[in-house]
Every structure is written in structure tokens, then in C-alpha cells.
Amino acid sequence: MVVLKVLPEDSDVDMSDLENKIRATLKEVCEVNSAEIQEVAFGLKAIRLQVIVPDEEGKIDLVESLISKIDKVGQVDTEEVTLV
Fold it and tell me: What is the mean pLDDT of residues 25-47?
């Protein structure tokens, strides 16, 4: 399981729409276990994702890369990686 924090390009991004785009993009690669929209600061929000990624070399990097290519995504950070 990987916990990712996704920050938008700016505070005006529709976070629910962005979450839906992320789920659709990752559908074929991994399973989104949960997604939560969190307040960061000064009106900026982030999406905290828990995804189940197959234990294969390069899969976490692929997931990060796919998310970062989505329109309106500013930054993707891996916060935690654990075995399930």
C-alpha cells in the first residue's frame, strides 16, 4: 500500500473533479483504497490517496508519473509505503 499526497496547481482547482480524474487514470494500474480531501493552508487543499500497488519494480514510480501527468496536478509526494 502506498499513501500519496496530491497537490493541485492552484487553490481554484475543483478537488472532487481532480479526484475522479485520478481514480479513472489509475483504474488499470492499481486499486484506489481510499481518497480524502484535506485542507493544507490558505485555502489550498490536497488529496491524500491510499492505493494498493502490485509489488513489482517500478510500479510506484509509474503511479506517481501517471498522476503527475493529469491536468491541474501540481505535485505528487509519496508519504508512506507499506506491505499489505
Answer: 93
Q: What is the largest CA-CA distance in the chain?
A: 38
3-state secondary structure 29-81: CCEEEEEEEEEEECCEEEEEEEEECCCCCCHHHHHHHHHHCCCCEEEEEEEEE
**CATH no. of 2-81:** 3.30.70.60
Report the C-alpha gap between 59 and 71 in whole angstroms: 21
Sheet arrangement for strand 44-52: 31-41, 44-52, 2-8, 73-81
- Lowest pLDDT segment from 31-35, 40-44, 63-67: 40-44
